[in-house]
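Mods, move this if it's the wrong board.
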Amino acid sequence: MVKFPSTQWFDAVREIYNSDSSLHSGGGGACHTRTGLRIGTEGYLIVFDGLECSEARPAQTEELDTTDFIIEMPKDRWCEMVANIQTHGHADLDHTLNSLDLSQEDGIARSPVDDQYRQDLFYRYNQNFQDFFDASSRVPTALD
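Not the wrong board. Structure tokens:
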């Protein structure tokens, strides 16, 4: 079992996502973005190049501030989403990134440099990210 969040967890999800072409249909398939994830106090950098996630690793705030956008939620909210994906094989309608974004007054995605074009990449590539996280249903996950 792999702990969420961790480099090992993201690597396991990347391997599944990159090797299963059925997961590459979102947003027309290709996704080009450097994205920050803020999971409570932890930061991660996720890089998509075309049809694959080329990198997923821990990142400090300074590096996250150079990304196209940051998806930010309290750790318990992230864990709730991942647990839902583990239970159902994919996020149910209340636990997709899109529904979580819409349920928050200020949303869960923001541009670190207040650039609306870069923040809009979240909406453009939203399905790619959902497919990525849905791939985690195949990774035995420990949530703490």
